[in-house]
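Reopening: structure tokens for the magnesium ion complex, inputs below.
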Amino acid sequence: MSKHQFQTEVNQLLHLIIHSLYSNKEIFLRELVSNASDALDKLKFLTYTDEKLRGISFDPRVDISFNEEEKTLTIADTGIGMDDQDLVENLGTIARSGTRSFIEALKGENKGDINMIGQFGVGFYSAFMVADRVRVVSRKAGEDTAWVWESEGKGEYGIEKGERDSQGTTVTIHLNDDGKEFAARWAIERVIKKYSNHIPFPIYLHFDEVKYDGEGKERTQTRERKTEKINDATALWRRPKTELKDEDYREFYRVISHDDEAPILHVHTQAEGTMDYTTLFYVPGKAPFDLYLSDFRSGVKLYVKRVFITDDDRDLLPTYLRFVRGIIDSEDLPLNVSREILQQNRVLAKIKAASVKKILAELQKLAGDAGKYADFYREFGKPIKEGLYQDYENRETLLELVRFKSTATQKSEFASLAEYKGRMKPDQKAIYYVTGESEDTLRQSPLLEMYRDKDVEVLIMDDEIDEIVIPSVGVYSELEFKSVNRSNSADELKTEKDRESEKELDPFIAKLKEILKDRVKDVKASTRLSDSPSCIVVDQDDPTVKMQSMLKAMGKFDFGEIKPVLEINPRHEIIRRLQKIEDQSLLEDASVILLEQAMLIEGIKIDNPATFVQRLNRLMEKAL
Ligand code: ADP
Ligand code: MG
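Re-run output (same inputs, fresh job):
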């Protein structure tokens, strides 16, 4: 056997690989299977393009076997193979640059992140994580001689002539203590299923099935050699769409999502041209349990040329689409791109942008069926609303996709903004909405009285996220969103007569302001009310009551106390009579009650219920 020295970089790399402990050492199998698959791909191509190889018998496959006693694992392929010179070049030197940076990365901050190894074109050496010795027997397609390459990964390797029946490569790993667990049927199957299930070539596992016959002393043991295909061998998403039935899509969804329920929809895109990629996305029927957890798992797997890269990248789609399940398979990315590279990768950024548009377009189609869309929206409405402030580029589409409860719909039913626009009064210039704790209280809120009287629709927003999203959006189709919870919001709906009657209240308002000066920011007359004597709103730029309690609960902001604006109804009987009251203590009781009852309706706790009740009782005494 002729001895050869590894190139310096290879030596350094091997030293790191052999002497560090890696958590995901199983990836060595992914790397070797991926090499086998590459070799099959290369030969496959040559059987189409190379005259000499056109006629050879080619049964593309990967065969994995193991020996538990001897602690060996063997991966064999029928691919392109290597001659002695190829072995020296490929498994002794590193042609590509970047090895140095990989070595630095292994030593440096990403200590232990062996996962990136393939990206640097040195995946083969990962075998030394689990090996005392690696033996490669290879025969190049079209040649008669086979060659052996053998090494313990310590400075040198040997090469000699060998035997192999046909073209291809056999890699035998003599497993070390860290790797001996891989000389087992289930361990191999698990890793292959995890990383290489959709390699488009069959992977066969050879194993002994042990059978027992008879009882007691008569008991005999027989071993039978078995072979089983352990991967799908077809990348479903690569098959022509016309070949795939709904059931196929459904089955594949089950595999990638572990969800037995039917998905709401799937979108399958096979793009060719300036960029070659395939995407297959699913919208699940039910929200995943971790939808609102900060450490939610990504539902999208990335493949490069059918080789699984990662299922742990949460940036493959924008966060608001985190409920989507599926795959992205790119032809244009290098195998095993690292996380850092993924984030800045322009190819991936383009695929991502196109994918978002596709998914949103599909949801728009779904919206054509109001019933189905409502089912979708009940599960995923919140994340879609998050999109309004996360995804500026698709805001127009997202505005068509969001739904809100409304004074024009039945309880719990949704309205779209387009429907709202269609129902608007001819001179109406804004979209009105009210925010608060629950749909029920909001539907009865005094804030809505004037809108009801004038038959103006108000969107009912009882979802926490609405408070953040709607102000950030500002307009829909040139219509401004206006919060009914704010003072002045109803100004443009008022008639001249309304304004006059508000004005008449000025002297009385001065008195109220004096009495309530510590508790309110302002007192205003407001014709927005009809049945109720008073209501509270927030000043134009203050956070709404709901927003204040949300932010307080998050423990992030402390505004100090934000005082509400009290609005009183000039046409209400109580207000009319109250203006004539001379008795100062009676006026005081009534004024405070006007404020506190308005707070109660808004779901705000009053600081001192006992005083409230005392005042109420004093008033009742007078009335009875
Ligand atoms: P990469 O696969 O990124 O090129 P590897 O370290 O995994 O890097 O492999 C190095 C090279 O060794 C490959 O490019 C290929 O030329 C050769 N090689 C490895 N395994 C095989 C195999 N099973 N059949 C043919 N060539 C192989
Ligand atoms: Mg490789």
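The pocket of magnesium ion (ligand 2) is lined by residues 31, 34-35, 118, 123-124 (CB under 6 Å). The domain at 402-623 is CATH 1.20.120.790 (Four Helix Bundle (Hemerythrin (Met), subunit A)). Marking as resolved unless the reporter disagrees.
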